[in-house]
Amino acid sequence: MSSVKIEFKDLSKRYKDVLAVSNFSAQVQSGRVTGFLGPNGAGKSTALRCLLGLVNPTGGGAEINGGSYSQLVDPIHKVGAVLDSRGFHPGLTAKQNLKIMASASDINFSRIDEVLELVDLASAANKRTKGFSLGMKQRLSLAIAMLGDPEILILDEPANGLDPLGIVWLREFLQKLAGEGRTILVSSHQLAEMQNTVSDVLIINKGVLVAQGTIKEICKGRSLEEAFLELTLRKSA
Amino acid sequence: MSALLKSELRKLIYLRANWLLLLWSGIFAALGTVAPILILNSDNGPGRGAFSGTETPEGINGVFANASGGYLFALILGILIMTNEYRHGTAVGTFLVTPKRSTVLVAKLIAASLAGLVIQLFSFIFAITSGFIALTFFEPHAPVPAELLFKVFRASAISGLVLGIVGVGLGALVKNQIAAVTGAVIWTLIVEGLVVAFVESIGKYLPAGAIFGLVDVDFGENDFNFSIENYLSPGPATLVLLGYAALFSLIAMRTTLRRDLD
Ligand SMILES: Nc1ncnc2c1ncn2[C@@H]1O[C@H](COP(=O)(O)OP(=O)(O)O)[C@@H](O)[C@H]1O
Ligand SMILES: [Mg+2]
């Protein structure tokens, strides 16, 4: 039986004159890959940052396992996150960056080699991240997210800037993690890219929830892109 | 907490720039002792008439008091400890691991004060050693009393601990690394120095003035009317410095606890 792992509850965030997220309510089910879809500027990153306690909502809130992120005990053992900011020091090697994160949460250093292996980055372990390609940076971010072997993964546009090979790699990586029963919430503005990866979708546009459900319910035989266009047009009409 | 502190210390040790900063602090402090020895002993140097020479106890005091001058680098390191997180976007990861931001800040404040202490101990030793070596070229000179070295050591240690903390607060407030470091350098090398030297009534309460009071050595009669009498005595000077540490710890907390991170 699936249960609700992540819940947005009437979440709003205003930045001065921009209402980035507006009364957004949605649920993410346990053990599924949920695509968080919407065009650039729709409010995906803002909603995810609110969920992770990095940004303060102006209204409502968001919960993981029934409580706020900051209430989680040992959060990186429960939630792994990759956000669009780089999140590691360019002057340090991949391994040094991982050691800093691991030591902050008392994670055994043997886990570092495991996660580097997991994201195919073992050969670059001792290279400074300054020289990393975008794909390598993205994989290092994933390695950091996997340090605590979390059951929940929150990924903000992980495919951004990846070349086709990188995207294929990412898709297989996510499918492997999903196969292990993890809950994955992954945002994207490229709808086509997500069609075969996700089982559920949340669609957001201009900060507002447009639709949520399984990919079958949403698409009804159409492509995700067609469904998205129709739903957003209908909503704003 | 101890895990977080270890993580902070690891960041300090891994970054090459921090080791360079340590080296520079030594060179800077050593210039502070060696340059006056050279100037005071040159036949027609500008300092000759203004200050006592190294053949007098006051001259020796003036020279070795400068061995505590590396505190600017403790301040800069404190700034880097905080602003590196924003500059490289690592603040997000740091606060994801430890959502309780106050805990992270306490670890940073402790790490910064330890780092400031290390900088000041290193630059003190470097400056004292360089001073002794320079003096051997200008015999005879007045003896260097152990009490003088102790007083300067005390000022070095306390200023290092305090300015590391001040740096974290300043970095948290300003966020922009270049702006914070530039501001700190201009303030310390120009503004504060002038105020401390020429407006003692205010200057004695500024960090540099308090450190000056903490060094607590007699420079004798000189053209600038630069008398230790006009500054705080070591006890109150220490309290003023601890006050700065408390103030800037508070600033670090107030600015960071509820800030949106992107
Ligand atoms: N820190 C910020 N300050 C001001 N406006 C912001 C900030 N972050 C996001 N916004 C605005 O909020 C809206 C939603 O942005 P974002 O959440 O990044 O969307 P998405 O991730 O879906 O592309 C956009 O209009 C964006 O310009
Ligand atoms: Mg985004």
Automatic annotation (TrEMBL), chain A:
GO MF annotation list: ATP binding; ATP hydrolysis activity
SMART domains: AAA
One Pfam entry name: ABC_tran
Domain ABC transporter span(s) in chain numbering: 6-231
Presence of the UniProt keyword Transport in the record: yes
Domain of life of the native organism: Bacteria
Coiled coil segments of this chain: none
Keywords, ordered alphabetically: ATP-binding, Nucleotide-binding, Transport
UniProt record similarity statement: Belongs to the ABC transporter superfamily.
Protein name: ABC transporter
Species of the source: Actinobacteria bacterium BACL2 MAG-121001-bin67
From TrEMBL, chain B:
Keyword Nucleotide-binding: no
Transmembrane segments: 21-40, 60-81, 109-135, 155-174, 181-199, 231-253
Keywords: Membrane, Transmembrane, Transmembrane helix
Keyword Membrane included in the entry's annotation: yes
The name this protein goes by in its record: ABC transporter permease
Signal peptide: none
Superkingdom: Bacteria
Entry coiled-coil feature ranges: none
